[in-house]
């Protein structure tokens, strides 16, 4: 009996050890099963935190870019406004300069024309004297004719020179009197011309281009004497 009990003890010990090992494995497996969900939750939490941190970083970066874009747009608008103001100033200056140039050119032309008129106007009496001499002097001898030809050639040269400078005679005879062109010295009653017509030119008038160089001194027609009609000449009959 004693031997049987001795043989049974090792078997029981082996079984006990096996049970202990199995329990230990079960405990480890349970621990692993518990740790797996915990690790997943931690990983998910960490991923969410990382995503939120990345989103916050992207938002901050986007806001910074929008601020830079807004600053650039504001700077561009300021530059555009300055460009428009400078362009407007340039246009005003250019217009003022163009007006000044035109005004200066016009004043210069008027001054040149005035000097030209004064100079040529001073020569016109010389032309008048040549024309009076031509009308009054009647050369008789050969010597007188030669002298006449000499000063007439000078007269022709002067007239040619004046014509080349733009001087032209008015020749107002037969035209209607115009106070802007003519100066009336005499009014002569006549039935030959209509009233207000230039009958004769006493002192020649001249143009310089389209400008009056000298007014023509003229004789103007006035109303003539009307003949008394036969009806006007008959005496009135006495009242009956």
Helix fraction? 55-70%
Shape: rod-shaped
The named CATH superfamily of the domain at 167-224: Head domain of nucleotide exchange factor GrpE
Please state the CA-atom Rg, rounded to the nearest Å.
Answer: 64 Å
Low-confidence stretches: 1-9, 227-240
Secondary-structure content class: alpha+beta
Mean pLDDT: 79
Q: What order do the helices and strands follow?
A: HHEEEEEEH
Strand segment count: 6
CATH topology heading of the domain at 167-224: Nucleotide Exchange Factor Grpe, Chain A, domain 2
> CATH class of the domain at 167-224, please?
Mainly Beta
Instruction: Give the number of helices.
Output: 3
The major sheet is characterized as:
3 strands, antiparallel
The strands making up the biggest β-sheet line up spatially as 1-4-5
Distance between the termini: 213 Å
**Proportion of beta-strand residues:** 5-15%
Can you name the CATH architecture of the domain at 167-224? Roll
Please outline what is shown here.
The chain has helices at 2-136, 142-164, 230-233; strands spanning 167-169, 182-190, 198-203, 206-208, 211-214, 216-223. The chain starts with a helix and ends in a 7-residue tail after the last helix. Strand 4 and strand 5 (211-214) form a beta hairpin.
Describe the structure.
Residues 1-9 and 227-240 have low confidence and may be disordered. The protein is of the alpha+beta class and 240 residues long. It starts with a helix and ends in a 7-residue tail after the last helix. The longest helix has 135 residues, at 2-136. It has helices at 2-136, 142-164, 230-233; strands spanning 167-169, 182-190, 198-203, 206-208, 211-214, 216-223. Helix 1 packs antiparallel against helix 2. The protein has a domain at 167-224: Head domain of nucleotide exchange factor GrpE (Nucleotide Exchange Factor Grpe, Chain A, domain 2), CATH 2.30.22. The protein is rod-shaped and about 175 Å long. The protein contains three helices and six strands; from the N terminus they run ααββββββα. The strands form two sheets. The chain has a three-stranded antiparallel beta sheet. A three-stranded mixed beta sheet has the order 2-6-3, with no helix packed on it.
